[in-house]
Automatic annotation (TrEMBL):
Protein name (Swiss-Prot/TrEMBL): P-type Cu(+) transporter
Lineage: Archaea, Methanobacteriati, Methanobacteriota, Stenosarchaea group, Methanomicrobia
Pfam families, alphabetized: Cation_ATPase, Cation_ATPase_C, Cation_ATPase_N, E1-E2_ATPase
Catalytic class of the enzyme: translocase
Subcellular localization: Cell membrane
Key words of the record: ATP-binding, Cell membrane, Copper, Copper transport, Ion transport, Magnesium, Membrane, Metal-binding, Nucleotide-binding, Phosphoprotein, Translocase, Transmembrane, Transmembrane helix, Transport
Main location, first listed in the record: membrane
Amino acid sequence: MRSLYLFIALRKTGNICPCRLENPAETPPAGGRPLADWYTLSAEEVRRELGTGPAGLSPGEADERLQRYGKNVLREEARETRLQVFLRQFKSVLIVILVIAAAISFLVGEPVDAAAILIIVVLNALLGFSQEWQAGEAIEALKKMLVQRAVVVRGGERQEIDAAGLVPGDLVALEMGERVPADLFIVEATSLEVDEAPLTGESSPVDKAPDSLPAGTTLAERSNMAFAGTTVVNGRGRGVVVATGMTTEFGMIAGLSQRVEDEATPLARQMDRLGRDLGLIALGIAVLAVAVGLLQQRELLEMFLVGVSLAVAVIPEGLPAVVTLTLAIGIKNMMRRNCLIRHLPASETLGAVSVICTDKTGTLTRNEMAVVRVKTPGAEVAVTGTGYAPDGEFLVGENPIDPLADPGLQQFLHTVLLCNHATLKLEEGGWRILGTPTEGALVVAAAKAGLSREDAPEAAKEFSFNSTRKRMTIVYPGEGDFVAHVKGAPEVLLARSSRLLRGDSVVPLTDDLRDALLAEIAGYASGGLRVLGAAYRPLPEGLEWTEETVEEDLIFLGFAGIVDPPRPEAAEAIRLCRSAGIDVIMITGDNPLTAYAIARDLGLSSEGALTGADLEALTDDELASRLRTTKVLSRVTAEHKLRVIDILARERAVIAMTGDGVNDAPALKKASIGIAMGIKGTDVAKESSDMVLVDDNFASIVAGVEEGRREYDNIARFTRYLLSSNIGELVAIVGALLLGLPLILIPVQILWINLVTDGLTALALGLEPAEQDVMQRRPRDPGESILTRNAYLVVLILGVWLGLLTIYVFSGLYQVDLDRARTMAFTGLIIFELYNVLNFRSFRFPLHRIGFFSNPALIFAILGSLALQALVVYVPILQTFLGTAPLTPADWGLLALLGLPVLIAGEVYKAVMLRATVR
Ligand code: ATP
């Protein structure tokens, strides 16, 4: 099973920066200063040393430095060379048996047999090599797609680049959820916290700020540095790159940390077991057969050949290579469908998924948001305009108003703009948002009123947004005191507000007012609008700024209703899931009414919506039973996701769970298959996932499931086909022996069948298109074996039939001409198997239903096998090697006729079974 071993050994991808450093030894520490003491400098000194400023490096200078310092990448474990992969093909017990057989044949004066066996061994190695190499290429391509991106300021412009292009002196922006792309000296930080566990082992996040530190400060205490390979878990900041690639702290220990565990896919393990079992069976049968032969007083050499033939017949040599290639092709197909597989087992798990827990925003919806209504305690306006263009009006009824003339509305817009990181940009293609769509929609609304953040002072403090807090705060210096601007889920803000702004006066927030506002919020949400509230608070002097002290006693300003239309393709994908027996559960941080309205629009039927608070009030059993009918979970946190996974797992569900934020990492790891969002997902989420959804689109997950099911079906198809062929060979050899006939097939002939003709057709079976009803069946049981009891039975019946037919062909001729009899048996078996392969195209549908020509590769494989067999039968040199004699056209015709019932029986059986199930 050598090819499988390799496939198992293909590396996990993307865990470490996908990196390669051209010449690490020649890369000097940036700026020529010993690496260790950057932290002793001030931000100004670091900038001066590295010749950079607030606008970053100029693009020209960055290019020049890239030449000088090399790429910002780690040295990767070298990929095996072609020769190494080729030579590894010979490390198998079977090959050893064959080489011994060749040696013995040579010693007893059969050099042609010996050479033939060796040639086939080499051919086999070449086949294995080419499959493995192609699989390796697929994985390499995958790695390339998982490159890390970094936001850098060059020539005053923010731009996103491949992190490999970073050079010392670059000014890099850091945001929550991102992996730090190089060693940085922090020059700006707002509540910046970094998880340095991969580097220092310290599990709690470390605060970062741009102060200089005394010499001798340990790595773990260098709070003015952010190191490559660590992740930002809170806040944001900027840093100047001081070291890249192998000269980073992480690079220096990379040799240690790059060793990634090998992992086997469950299917690979199953195949491995199958291979071992068959090996043992082969040995047993061979020993037994030889014993019987010796009792029959046959020649020792002949019995030796029988033993080798049997061993060769039982082991499906072509299987590992075909599995390897099919999985590799599957990964490529999934990539084409926007599912980037990071861990190999995921490609298999995807096909067995029985529950998909999906985010709403951006996955089921388009994530193209626009504020359409704003409600303040004193006014309600509609906002017009489409897309991100800042053109639109504020209407009361039909009448346009100036929003800045209403103090409440003006303060609302002002706050949502200041408590915001998105920026609006006019580019060639039109207006674009840099940042999240939710924040972008608010910036656009403010821009429609003529507001921008251009003259805003620098923020003094930030309490970042995350889906547990459901709010964020940025503190700015105000006219007198500092002012906290807060935005978030409106009910969360209302719970923290004691006053509200009505017109230009601040009034107490009574219970009645709060209830009235909550009712209005519910009205917005029921219409499918995403609702975002805003509040502010001038901070009392001397207040110590913590989340708790700042985000309380707020002045509520109102809320915005944001549209986020459902993705049109999501409704169809949900329908497909229903027919495929896959449960879809929407798990969102959003409001239950909004979530429910979107679910309804998408045809996701759910008995109401549960909130995070509801979840907490339910026992595990209660929750398990509610989950059978309630498919919308809202206002949930990452911890709730973990609990949902636990509960679903009790019912043996195979759970796919999507996620994007830092907090989602544990759930992504825990789910049977964690799916990170490719666009809005953070580096942390991606690194914890098994699969990255390139376009964030729910429909792509479903496409991936379909591909996974097809892939599994195909592996089942050719595994069963190859086994039935092997049983056919076994029956022919043992049957002939028991009947006292001469050796029916010589080892090279069996090798030829197993490796060449079967190999071709099995590969082509791996390309079989999905069955028509692939998404109308229930998900398979993940523990199910590829060889179910029924499958064994079919494989056995067909195999025995093929074997007996071969004996029949041989028995009528061997007394006249043994070579010709063998050639008939040899060619007959191949022809019978070519009929048989058509049986295995589908286990349920007859050929006329799946279309005779719907798998062109198989037609080519069948014709190719026949052509190759004709060469073997007629070309003299091949005749010598494979012990064949020429056949007449009538012989071919007879064999074709004899094999036909194999196919007809299969077709009739399927037609009858199909009719029975339809009824
Ligand atoms: P999903 O979980 O389906 O992706 P979501 O984006 O609504 O949906 P979260 O990102 O967890 O989920 O957001 C939860 C809530 O927090 C939102 O409903 C909204 O009220 C609020 N919110 C979202 N983004 C921000 C933000 N940038 N600032 C403040 N509050 C936000």
